[in-house]
Amino acid sequence: MNKLSALCLIASGAIGGLFFACTPATDTGTNPAVDMTVATFTVGGNVTSLTGTGLVLSLNGTEDLPVSAFGPFTFAGKVATGAQYNVTVKASPPFQTCTVMSGAGIMGSANVTNVLVACNPNAFKVGGSVTGLSGSVVLQNNAGDDLTVNADGSFEFPTPVAIGASYAVTVKTQPTTQFCSVTAGTGAISNAPVTSVAVTCGTPVSCQDWLSKVPTAKDGPYTINPDSTTAYQVWCDMTTDGGGWTLAMRFKNDGVFGYASGYWTDNKVLNEDAGGSVDPSLNANAKTMAFVNLTGATVRGCKGVPGPGLCFQQTLGGNKTLMKVFTETFKAGGPTRALVTSLWGDDTSQPNCNGTGINNNSAYGGPGTFSGARFGLIGNNENDCATTDSGWGFGVYGCSDTNRACGAGGSFWQSGACGRNCTQGTLWVR
After folding, report:
1. Which of 7, 100, 166, 244 sits 20 to 30 Å CA-CA off 35?
2. What is the C-alpha to C-alpha distance for residues 391 and 399, in angstroms, rounded to an integer?
3. CATH code that applies to domain 40-121
4. pLDDT, position 275
């Protein structure tokens, strides 16, 4: 057993007190001295996706470390073994959010190198408002974030977009009977949500309007609303003669739409097909609302359904409804006799006069016959137009009966001999 001895001196103070002074003796045993020093280690890790400057990390709230680039970092100060360490974000860089992972723990016997600081740009949502919608529209942002909207009002895409990144809002799926357009739909995210995208929906006013909005549109039924009051369905020819034609009338070879028929000047519609079909290929009479309230600059008549080389057209002298046009006086400019002959390959009518246009007729004051065409050509055996007997086109009559109809099975495109009054085809406006 080791013994520790000391020499103590006791002296008498000058003022009568006592004091002790003890001096340790040298240890003569074999045990080493005890080392009371505690080991310390550094704390560090990596920063990812940092852009720019402004990031400041803090260790235990006492040591700050500015970080200006992504990559490894190490605090200068050390933490003793067994002590706690805690890395936090004291300041984030502009427009970014930095998050610390594996940043807290108890210091062991080695440097800490696994602290991860992940920085990401701040992100905001993109939205706006929809007006005029009837039905459903599917919107899309950046060609991937789909959003179905079923009513007017505000909308917001579910996926945020990072600051500085672009957004592009488009219509992925149009409503069944409408067309929706987007304004203020592109840009880059700043430091705030986007709420200014405007989606405006409405029914186009004509087939030409549809074609201007959808250049790849195909022939078929479309809904239009020319007067912004009541929408209705029409057939659109989007492919021939420049496309954009709206079907206004369809003629059966029975003379119902003779020159004197009130359908040429009134606002009544006629559709004899089950279900109200507007298919131009059907051999059935029809007069659509487009004849009444759709304004256009050109009228076109076609042999049956339209196709290359099967139609002729005439300008209307301004944007007018067909109902208005056919209440006016004669307007020249219809098909030539050569065009009529090339279309129908039949030229049995009288060869002279050849007056052509809209509301085209000759009323002879004396005895004799006369003929006419709402849209087409009239002819005479004599070289004048006073007593014309023949007519080609639409709404024709021959001889003196303006309401004369075709006989059973008649299929002529011109009045031909006296008594024939047949027109089979379609009338369009654009």
Report:
1. 7
2. 10
3. 2.60.40
4. 58
Sheet containing 84-91: order of strands: 63-67, 55-59, 84-91, 104-106
The rounded distance, in Å, linking the Cα atoms of 237 and 218 is 8
Secondary structure of residue 323 in the 3-state scheme: helix
Q: How far apart are CA 318 and CA 286, in angstroms?
A: 25
Q: Tens digit of pLDDT for each residue in 38-77?
A: 899 999 999 999 988 999 999 999 999 999 999 999 999 9
H or E element, residue 344: helix 337-344
Total residues found in the chain within this entry:
430
User: Phi, psi at residue 290, to the nearest 5°?
Assistant: -60, -30
In the structure encoding, which two tokens stand for residue 372, read together?
A: 């006419």
125, two tokens:
């949502």
When comparing pLDDT for 86 and 27, which is higher?
A: 86
Residue at token pair 């409408």 = 178
The whole-angstrom separation of Cα 399 and Cα 410 is 17
Angle at 111 between CA 60 and CA 90, to 5 degrees: 25
Given the structure tokens 């992925």, which residue do they identify? 172
Residue 359 and residue 328 in contact, taking contact as beta carbons nearer than 8 Å = yes
Confidence bin at 15 (pLDDT 50/70/90): very low
Residue-wise pLDDT tens digits, 144-201: 999 999 999 999 999 999 998 999 999 999 999 999 999 999 999 998 999 999 999 9
